[in-house]
Write a structure and sequence with these properties.
The protein is α/β, with parallel strands linked by helices. The chain contains four helices and eleven strands. The strands form two sheets. Strands 1, 3, 4, 5, 6, 7, 9, 10 and 11 form a nine-stranded mixed sheet that branches.
Length: 166
C-alpha cells in the first residue's frame, strides 16, 4: 500500500475539507498514478468530492463506520474490515488518498509515500506527518523543481524502511 498527497511547506494537506491548491500538474500525476487502481479514503474525503461521488475508473474503498452501503464504492466499517478488503489486491495497486486521520492511521503500513511538495503555505487545517523527521522514512526520489500555475512544486517519493504488516 502507498499513500499519495500534496503538501505545503508545513506539511499541510487540506483546508476546510478540501485541497489547498489547484495545481494541474499535481492533479494529472494523481489521476495517472491512481487510475485503474484501488483508492482508500475516509468518509470526509469522499464527501469532499463533487456531489460526494467516488473517483471514476478506480475502486473506491471508504472507511465509513456509520455510512450506508452504496453501489458506487465499497464501504467498510472498521480498520480491521479495511485491511481484510485491501488484502484482496496487490499492495502496489492500493493508494491511501486521505484524509488526515486515514493517513495517520495507515502510514505505518505504507511502503511508499508519493508527495507533491508545494513551495507555498496554504493556511492548512489538516496536516501530514513530516516525513523528513520520521526515522522510518527515507527520501528516495526528488524531481527538479517545476513551476506550474504560479507554484513551484517537486514530486518526491519516500520509502518506509519499517513497514508494518496488515
Amino acid at each position: 500500500m502507498r499513500a499519495i498527497l500534496h503538501a505545503d511547506k508545513n506539511w499541510g494537506i487540506g483546508k476546510a475539507n478540501g485541497l489547498m491548491f489547484k495545481i494541474p500538474a499535481d492533479m494529472k500525476f494523481f489521476k495517472e498514478t491512481t487510475t485503474g487502481n484501488v483508492v482508500v479514503m475516509g468518509s470526509n474525503t469522499l464527501k469532499s468530492f463533487p456531489g460526494g461521488k467516488p473517483l471514476k475508473d478506480r475502486l473506491n474503498i471508504v472507511l465509513y463506520p456509520d455510512g450506508e452501503e452504496r453501489e458506487d464504492c465499497k464501504i467498510v466499517r472498521s480498520v480491521e474490515e479495511l485491511f481484510t478488503e485491501i488484502k484482496k489486491y496487490p499492495p502496489e495497486k492500493v493508494f491511501v488518498i486521505g484524509g488526515q486521520m486515514m493517513y495517520k492511521t495507515l502510514l505505518p503500513y505504507c511502503t511508499e509515500v508519493l508527495v507533491t511538495k508545494v513551495d507555498a503555505t496554504g493556511d492548512a487545517d489538516a496536516f501530514f506527518e513530516n516525513l523528513d523527521k520520521n526515522a522510518n522514512f527515507k527520501l528516495v526520489y526528488e524531481s527538479e523543481p517545476v513551476e506550474t500555475n504560479g507554484y513551484m512544486i517537486k514530486f518526491t517519493t519516500y520509502r518506509n524502511i519499517a513497514v508494518k504488516a496488515y
